[in-house]
């Protein structure tokens, strides 16, 4: 739409610029807070990944026993129930892992090797860590999307809307100044003509 070069349009663009400049700092602050939350979630995710790796490394001896065993250990530990809620962080809905309950298949203490108890404990720890990791990856993914969206909005205000409003205001002001100067010149010319006319009439 063509820019109207008048005082009404100038006021509208000034009002818009004031609104953009008022809105941008709060938007940028929200972006910074989301980036901080994203970095924190990435750190927690990395810590969980390291915890899983450390746990696996510490149980290599148990895994060798498992490889040599003929015991049926299928469905030894299963997740019976898990609770996932959501929290609202600066308008972003993020999952929160709550209580996790496991079901352990009954087995005879005499019929099973001694290390089955350790295996049950390990499986529960590993399942809980994997659930935490899955939860944290979801949080990181959603925060990544939120940071990308709000960065686009900050850039829109900072690099497009505000500069365009400033450019429009400058253009309107120049046009109004030119128009005012032209009006003054026309007025002086008209007055000069009028004076010449009056002088001619007096001479006659």
UniProtKB/TrEMBL annotation:
- Name the family: Belongs to the V-ATPase D subunit family.
Write down the NCBIfam families for this protein, in alphabetical order: V_ATPase_subD (TIGR00309)
Task: Report the GO molecular function annotations.
Answer: proton-transporting ATPase activity, rotational mechanism
Entry keyword set: Coiled coil, Ion transport, Transport
Recorded protein name is: V-type ATPase, D subunit
Key word Aminoacyl-tRNA synthetase present? no
The record ties this protein, via InterPro entries, to: V_ATPase_D
> Which parts of the chain are coiled coil?
119-153
Organism the protein comes from: Rhodopirellula europaea 6C
**Which Pfam family, any one of them, does this sequence belong to?**
ATP-synt_D
**Keyword Ion transport (UniProt):** yes
């Amino acid at each position: 739409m063509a820019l109207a070069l008048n005082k009404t349009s100038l006021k509208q663009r000034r009002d818009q610029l004031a609104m953009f400049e008022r809105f941008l700092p709060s938007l940028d602050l929200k972006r910074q807070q989301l980036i901080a939350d994203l970095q924190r979630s990435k750190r927690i995710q990395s810590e969980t990944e390291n915890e899983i790796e450390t746990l696996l490394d510490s149980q290599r001896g148990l895994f060798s026993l498992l490889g040599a065993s003929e015991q049926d250990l299928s469905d030894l530990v299963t997740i019976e129930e898990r609770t996932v809620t959501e929290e609202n962080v600066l308008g972003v809905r993020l999952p929160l892992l709550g209580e996790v309950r496991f079901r352990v298949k009954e087995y005879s203490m005499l019929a099973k090797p001694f290390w089955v108890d350790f295996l049950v404990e390990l499986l529960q720890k590993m399942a809980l860590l994997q659930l935490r990791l899955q939860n944290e990856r979801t949080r990181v993914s959603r925060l990544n999307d939120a940071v990308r969206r709000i960065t686009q909005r900050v850039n829109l205000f900072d690099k497009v809307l505000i500069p365009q409003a400033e450019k429009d205001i400058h253009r309107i002001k120049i046009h109004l100044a030119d128009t005012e100067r032209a009006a003054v010149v026309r007025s002086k010319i008209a007055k000069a003509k009028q004076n010449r006319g009056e002088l001619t009439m007096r001479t006659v």
